[in-house]
Automatic annotation (TrEMBL):
Annotated protein name in UniProt: Tryptophan--tRNA ligase
Motif ('KMSKS' region): 194-198
Binding residues for L-tryptophan: 133
UniProt-listed GO biological process terms: tryptophanyl-tRNA aminoacylation
Pfam families, sorted: tRNA-synt_1b
Organism, as annotated: Acidiphilium rubrum
Region of interest (Disordered), residue spans: 194-214
GO molecular function: ATP binding; tryptophan-tRNA ligase activity
Lineage start: Bacteria, Pseudomonadati, Pseudomonadota, Alphaproteobacteria, Acetobacterales
Record keyword Ligase present: yes
Keywords from the UniProt entry: Aminoacyl-tRNA synthetase, ATP-binding, Cytoplasm, Ligase, Nucleotide-binding, Protein biosynthesis
Assembly information from the UniProt record: Homodimer.
Length: 333
């Protein structure tokens, strides 16, 4: 039995990319493992969030995760800020990680854009907090989308440097669980950008709570190119929007891209888009309905998250206390 850790930022509402790249793997990995799943609100505020929206989105995403199949009686589901061990260990990692390492992180470059002077220092040290999230539990398996692979390598570098600097083997090696074809779902408006909660265009993504008309409209308007769909996946090279739609179709229908193109190749995008809409609607309707049912009782969601936080703290507190001892701090109590 392995200990799994993963998180999602309540910066918006989880979308189809989060579902296919991360959440569906979290659900599958609950079986036979110890799952720890976190709404990472400390990460979310590295970019300013409206406080009311942040609270609402934390609850909605918690409801969504449960609607997708995260079972809070089996896995631990909680919000990051409720377990102070994350921030305590992140501070130590701020002092272990090197400036130059963080300076190479592509997510920071993407999110900071041109005006680096104006972004929060939290955005820069985001990967140190992410390393702390995982290592505070000695978790070894981390199911994420491939946009997070660089951060996981950094987390291993931090763990190794800590172990080296303090002459210990305290922190384990982390194994990324990045699953093939669904590890990077692209924006519906731009095949070169990943689908993101923080994209300013709502048309770029399918939120897991979108209603059926919105789903149909977003897929109808999804960017394509003028050529017909090819008859073979190799011919999707250089056609990122076509590749993305075929990839989403294959993932949802649980068939290969070659099979998708056997069904829809040598014709325009109309038929593929129509069938894709039906697949997305079929997948998301029960998730949306269950989310709405759960979201009607916010007090119940808060209770679940608080109970999850207590279970999480019981694991993380002794681990982080030991890290503090190794560094040379006196016991807290
Ligand atoms: P934000 O824009 O606020 O960073 P996000 O959409 O990138 O939001 P995160 O909360 O940062 O979502 O990531 C949650 C999980 O979803 C991570 O494991 C991440 O790797 C995965 N993920 C995010 N976007 C995609 C995507 N487009 N395709 C596949 N997986 C994704
Ligand atoms: Mg992200």
């Amino acid at each position: 039995m392995a200990r799994i850790f993963s998180g999602i930022q309540p910066t918006g509402i989880a979308h189809l990319g989060n579902y296919l790249g991360a959440i569906q793997n979290w659900v599958a990995l609950q079986e036979g493992n110890e799952g720890i799943y976190c709404l990472v609100d400390l990460h979310a505020i590295t970019v300013w969030q409206d406080p009311h929206a942040l609270r609402a989105q934390t609850r909605t995403n918690a409801a969504l995760l449960m609607a997708c199949g995260i079972d809070p009686s089996r896995s631990i589901l909680f919000h990051q800020s409720a377990v102070h061990a994350h921030a305590r260990l992140a501070w130590i990692f701020n002092c272990v990680a090197r400036f130059g390492w963080l300076n190479r992180m592509t997510q920071f470059k993407d999110k900071a854009g041109k005006d680096r002077e104006a972004v929060s220092t939290g955005l820069f040290v985001y990967p140190n907090l992410m390393a702390a999230d995982i290592l505070a539990y000695h978790a070894t398996e981390v199911p994420v989308g491939d946009d997070q692979s660089q951060h996981l390598e950094l987390a291993n570098d931090i763990a190794q440097k800590f172990n080296h600097d303090y002459e210990t083997e305290f922190f384990p090696v982390i194994h990324p669980r990045i699953i093939g074809g669904t590890a990077r779902i692209m924006s519906l408006r731009d095949g070169a950008k990943k689908m993101s909660k923080s994209d300013t265009s709502d048309q770029s993504r399918i939120n897991l709570t979108d209603d059926n008309d919105t789903i149909a409209q977003k897929i109808r308007r999804a960017k394509t190119d003028p050529a017909d769909l090819p008859d073979h996946p190799e011919k999707l090279e250089g056609r990122p929007e076509a590749r993305n739609l075929v990839g989403i179709f294959a993932a949802l229908a649980d068939i290969t891209q070659a099979e998708v193109l056997r069904l829809h190749g040598n014709q325009g995008f109309g038929h593929l888009k129509e069938q894709l809409t039906a697949l997305v609607v079929e997948k998301l309707t029960p998730i949306r309905e269950e989310t709405n049912r759960l979201a009607a009782d916010p007090t119940h969601i808060d209770t679940i998250l608080q109970q999850g936080a207590a279970r999480a703290a019981a694991i993380a507190n002794p681990i982080v206390a030991e890290a503090e001892r190794l560094v040379g701090m006196l016991p807290a109590a």
